[in-house]
Amino acid sequence: MTERRERNIALRLRYDGSAYHGWQFQQNALSLQEVLETALRRLTGEELPRGVFGCSRTDAGVHARTYVANFQTRCTIPADRFPAALRPFLPPDLSLVAALDVPEDFHARFSCVGKEYVYRIYGGKAPDPFLYHRAHYYPYPLDIEKMDTAARLICGKRDFKVFMATGSIVKDTCRNVWDCRVEERDGVAEITISADGFLYNMVRIIAGTLVAVSDGKIVVDEIPELIERGDRTKAGVTLPPHGLYLNRIWYASGEASEWIR
Questions:
Q1: In the predicted model, is pLDDT for residue 67 greater than 90?
Q2: Active-site amino acid positions
Q3: pLDDT digit string (tens) for 81-130?
């Protein structure tokens, strides 16, 4: 009998992270990686000794409009049938949108060349229950124009340790941010940041810094100097995780680059 060929399959997912303690396996808490691997084992009948590789270690409560994972399997289910086949084994807050056979050397995390995050925040006299766990409520008006002006000063390739969580151990804190902007959509401010990589809590700290700009606690023109000095205590607070979404992922040409957009 001919042995089945091992395949490398990429999965494009979406999820509401409210019920999970992030993507990565946790000792005593439910993770998205655990839920997905369990579903794949039930579908394929395989133990998946190498597990499932994710494109990002999203924190507890963080959401993803686009998330990519990959795994090796010998199952014969066509890639385009995976979403329908896996659906009965997934909870309603985790959805497989598409699957694709990819080259053997494709890795959801290490083949990634860029990511885009969106942080959603809104102000007003009272919180909106329909945005609970979907956007961060800030009980004061937001100056979108001022926030956007400050956001655009963040763009560029530089050392961003000022926007890194205290205590993080990273050798290289230089990143290339090619887009940072603030727009209002249906009364919600959306802070969009695209870069070749992110430091721990970087987007949530940038969001907190832009809120401080809106409040007048940080002057717009101070942003370049703030980044240059690298003093975490001078930046804004780290906003809560439930307003954060992994929005888009880029891969090099030939590695699911068009499929994932």
A1: yes
A2: 59
A3: 999 999 999 999 999 999 999 999 999 999 999 999 999 999 888 999 99
CB under 8 Å to 14, separation ≥6 — which residues? Answer: 64, 65, 66, 67, 94, 95, 97
Residue 220: its pLDDT value, please? Answer: 96
Separation CA 93–CA 24 (nearest Å): 16
Q: SS3 for 1?
A: coil
* DSSP string of 3-37, one letter each residue: PPPPEEEEEEEEE-GGGSS-SS--SSS--HHHHHH
Cα separation, 183 vs 35, in Å, equals 34
Buried b / exposed e across 140-171, counting CB within 10 Å, b at 16+? eebbbebbbbbbebbbeebebbbbbeeeeeee
Structure tokens at 245: 């979404």
| Tokens describing residue 65 | 């409009």
Identify the bridge partners of residue 179 per DSSP, sorted by sequence position. Answer: 194
Q: What are phi and psi of 174, to 5 degrees?
A: -85, 130
Amino acid found at 115: K
Helix or strand holding residue 76 (H, E): none
**Length in residues, the chain:** 261
Contact assessment for residue 116 and residue 131, using Cβ atoms and an 8 Å cutoff = no
Q: Nearest 5°: phi and psi at 79?
A: -55, -40
pTM of the model: 0.93
- Residue 9 has a CB neighbour count (10 Å cut-off) of 20
From residue 179, alpha-carbon distances to 78, 148, 156, 207, 211 in Å are 37, 11, 8, 14, 18
Terminal C-alpha separation, the chain: 40
